[in-house]
Structures
1.
Amino acid sequence: MESQSSPRTAVLMGGESEEREISLQSGENIAKALRESGVEVETYDWHPRKMRDFLNAGFERVFIALHGGSGEDGTVQAMLDLAGIPYTGVDARSASICMDKHLSKILVGAQTDVLVPEYLCISVPEARTRLAQHAPDRWEDSDFLSFPMMVKPARNGSSVGVSLVESPEQRDEAVRAACLSDDDSVLFEQYVHGYELTVAMLNGKALGVCQIIPKTKFYDYDAKYLRNDTEYLTPSGLGGDFDALVCRQAEDVACALGCTRGVVRIDFLADAALNPYFLEVNTVPGMTSHSLVPKIAAHAGYTFPDLCRLILDMARQG
Ligand SMILES: Nc1ncnc2c1ncn2[C@@H]1O[C@H](COP(=O)(O)OP(=O)(O)O)[C@@H](O)[C@H]1O
Ligand SMILES: [Mg+2]
C-alpha cells in the first residue's frame, strides 16, 4: 500500500481520437489494477478542450492511457512537462517521433541495422493535387515498388486509412482513403509477405514476441477490434532464436527512437525467410483485457497489476 502522502494520481483516458472507446477500456482496466495493488487513482476523461479544467483539478501524477491523437503524439506529454506533472510512458519528443511512421522509419534506417520496407512518402496536399490531375503517370515515382503495396497515412493508427493495393487501378482509391488530414503524408510501402509480429517492451527491454494471424487480408480495423477470429501466438511459434532476434531488434529500435520508458509495443513484419522488417511503434499500446501487451507480459511473468505498478513507478517529467 502507498503512504497517505502519495501523489494524487489521474488515469487519463478517452480523448478525441478514433481510438477513444478502446482508451476508455484501457483506462478503466488500468485504474482497477492499480487500485488492486493499493494505489489510489481517479479516472479522468480527457479532451483537449478540457485542458484548463484538467490542470485546475490539481493532479500530481498522471498515468497516460490515451491512444492516438493528443495523448500519443506528444501534445499531452508536452502540456504535462510545462505544468510540472510527472507522467507515465515516453516523453513528448519520442511520442511525436513514433507517431510519425515516416520519421521513425528514417531514424530506424539511419541508426540501426534493422530492415525497413521500401517506401515513398508524399504530402497529403501534393497527393490531392495529383488526384485532381487525372494524369495516367501521376504515381510514377512509386514505380520502384512492386504490387502488392500498402498505402497509408503516416500519422494515424488502428489501420484507419490503410489499404492493400494489389493493382495500379486500386491506387487512387487507396490514396484518397489515406488523405485524412492536410498536415499528414501518404506512405506507399512495399508489401512484406510472411508473418506479422509485435514485441511488448518495458523500460526499453523486450518482454516477448506475439505473432498475429488475422483471417482478413491484413490486420485491418475489423481484425483488430471487431472480429474474434484473429489468432495470437506468444511466443511467436517461429522458433526461440527468431524471437530472440526480433527482441534484440526491438531494443535497438527503442533506443534509436528514445522510447525506453514505460510500456511500448513495436510492430514488425517478417518475410518468408524470417527477415524482420520494422513497421511502427505504438507508444501508448492498448491495455484492455483483450490487448497484446498484458498477454505478452503475463507470459513473461508479470501480473497486470504488477505491470501497471511498474509503469506508474517510472512516471517522470520530460
Ligand atoms: N509493408 C507492409 N506489408 C504488409 N502488411 C502491412 C504493411 N504495412 C502495413 N501492413 C498491414 O497493415 C496493418 C496496419 O499498418 P500499420 O502501418 O501498422 O498502421 P496502424 O498504425 O494503422 O496500425 C499492419 O498491422 C499490417 O497488417
Ligand atoms: Mg500497427
Note: DSSP finds eleven helices and twelve strands in the chain.
2.
Amino acid sequence: MILELVQKFVPLKVKTFLKPYFRLIFPNKLMSVLWITFRCTYSCSYCPFCSKQSNFPQQFPIECEKSGEEWIEALKKIPPTSFYISGGEPFLYKDLPYIINNLPDKHSIIGIITNLSMPISVYEKVSKKIHLNVSFHREFVNETDFIEKILALKNRFHINVNIVATEENFDFIKNKIHIFDKNEIPYHIDPLVDNANKIHEYSIEYKELLKKYLEKSRTIKTEEKLAQKIPKKCSAGRNYYNLLPNGNALVCSRIIDYKYSPFIQEEVDESACLGNIFDGSFYLNSDDCICKYDCIAHCDRDYAKISIIKNKVHK
Ligand code: SF4
Ligand code: SF4
C-alpha cells in the first residue's frame, strides 16, 4: 500500500532519487515485471524485443497469449505482488483493461509502459487511476498528436514521459522539449544503450545538450561492475520475478534476454526458470541466488537486491 501511495503522490524527481534505495525501504516486497505481450505497434531500431533484427513477437505470437479471464484466475493463486506491466505495446493486448480493472485485491499495479499509439478509447476502458510511463518515439509520431493524447488522458492517469536520446531525437530535445515543460508534463531522458550495453557515442554537441538531462535521470555509469560477468548475490527469484505472455516465470528480465534474445548465444541455468503460473508449477526461491550473468536491465536493478561477491572471478 505504501508503495502505491508513493507512486501516486511523490514527484518524479524524488522517485528517481529514491530508486537505488528501493530494496532498503521494501526489503521483502514481492515485485514482478509482467510482459503481457511482445507485440508492438512500432518497430524501434534500438528495441531489444521488436526491432527488425529481434524476434520476440515471433517467439511469443498472439496464439501463446492467455485471455484476461485466464490471467485473473491464475493471479488469484499466486502470492501478493506489485506488478509493473511492460511489452511490446501492452495495450495491444486487448484484455489488458479487463486485467487491470479485475486484478485481485491482494495485488497492485505500480505502472504500465505504453507508447500511447492506441486509440484514446482503449485507455479509457481502464477504470483505475494508475501510473503510465509513456514512451515518446519521434520517428513514429509527431509531438503535437502525442501531447494532445497526453492532455486528453492526464486526468485519468499519472503520466510520465520517457524519451530515449536517439540521433533522431536530437532536434526534438534541443528545440522542442520545452513543450513538455509548458504543458507541465513530467519527463526524463535515457541514454541510448546498444545490445552490448554500450552507451551510444554522441557528438560533442549532443553530449553537451544531454548533460543537464542525464544528470537528472538514471544512468548506468554508477553500476558498471554489475554489468560484468562476476559473481553476484541476488534476490531475483525470491522477492522479484518476471512473467512472460504465456505465463512462464523467470527470475529477471536479463535472463529473458539470455533465454530468448537472438543477440545472445548462451544457455540459461534451469534454476533461473520459475515454472509457469497457468499450469501450477510456479514457485519462488527461498534464498538469494548466485548470478554469473552481466546485469544490465534497469528494471532488474530497481527491483532486485544485488551485491558483488568479492574476491571471486567468474570464468
Ligand atoms: S515502442 Fe517500445 S516496445 Fe515498441 S518497438 Fe519501440 S521500444 Fe520496442
Ligand atoms: S544480478 Fe541481475 S542478471 Fe543476475 S539474477 Fe540478479 S537481476 Fe538477474
Note: The radius of gyration is 19 Å.
